[in-house]
Amino acid sequence: MYLKLIHYSLFCDLALLLDAFGQSFLQPDISVFRQNLESLENLNAKLKLYHKKIFQDMMLSPFLNVLLQVLLHKSHDLLQEDICVTVYNMAAVNFEGFYATFLPQFLASSEGLDANQRTILECNFKHDQDLPSFSSTLHRFITDMRYYRLCNSALPEGSAQAMTTSHGLEQWNQIVTNSAIYKQYWLQMG
Predict the structure, then answer these.
(1) Which of 16, 87, 131, 156 has the smallest CB count inside 10 Å?
(2) Within a domain: residue 181?
(3) How far apart, in whole angstroms, are the C-alpha atoms of residue 124 and residue 75?
(4) C-alpha triplet 183, 184, 189: angle, nearest 5°
(5) Measured distance CA(74)–CA(68) in Å, rounded
(6) pLDDT digit string (tens) for 115-170?
């Protein structure tokens, strides 16, 4: 019984510590963010934190959510690569769970997207398991998500509904394809 009490106490202490880390990632101070991101990665390197059941069950999803939101909002853009490495390290513990569970839940809870855009984003997120490919896919995912939100915010009220038909989806995909072609063209010309 005494051993269970000690175990429970350690569990509570770890939960409080991880919660404090999570709260610090919501602060605008980039130096605190960097320091805590490094500390979290050090804990993982030394203690395999991301592999611990408590982290997997209770903290993984909130941490991934916060880190992806930071990438989406560009609030700590100077740390973009460090954040991508941390997201990779968290996802690498269970890639199957990341792709099958976390990613769909993240997209379902994301505002500013319609159902078709969520599906496209999920389908375009390649199931890479090496850091460079995962990082590249994550960057594209974040960029595409920002783009969809920007396009949706620029549409007149109610017009986003027209995009949910199959004809509307075809038009939307053509717009996106043409936008990418034109963007590439202008980058080459500029």
Answers:
(1) 156
(2) no
(3) 24
(4) 95
(5) 10
(6) 999 999 999 999 999 999 999 999 999 999 999 999 988 877 665 444 444 444 45
| Residue found by looking up tokens 């000690």 in the block | 6
- State how many domains the chain has: 1
| Residue 183 maps to a domain | no
Q: How many CB atoms lie within 10 A of CB 42?
A: 11
Residue 48: Cβ within 10 Å count: 11
Residue 157 domain boundaries: 2-164
Distance CA 186, CA 190 (A): 6
- Asked if 33 and 79 touch (Cβ cutoff 8 Å), the reply is yes
pTM: 0.75
Q: How many percent of the chain have pLDDT more than 90?
A: 53
* Structural domain contains residue 113: yes
Please report whether residue 130 resides in a domain: yes
Which has more confidence, 44 or 186? Answer: 44
What number is the average pLDDT over the span 87-107? 97
Cα separation, 158 vs 110, whole angstroms: 19
Tokens describing residue 173: 């995909």
Q: Is 93 helix (H, G, I), strand (E, B) or coil?
A: coil
Candidate from 70-74, 82-86, 135-139 with smallest mean pLDDT: 70-74
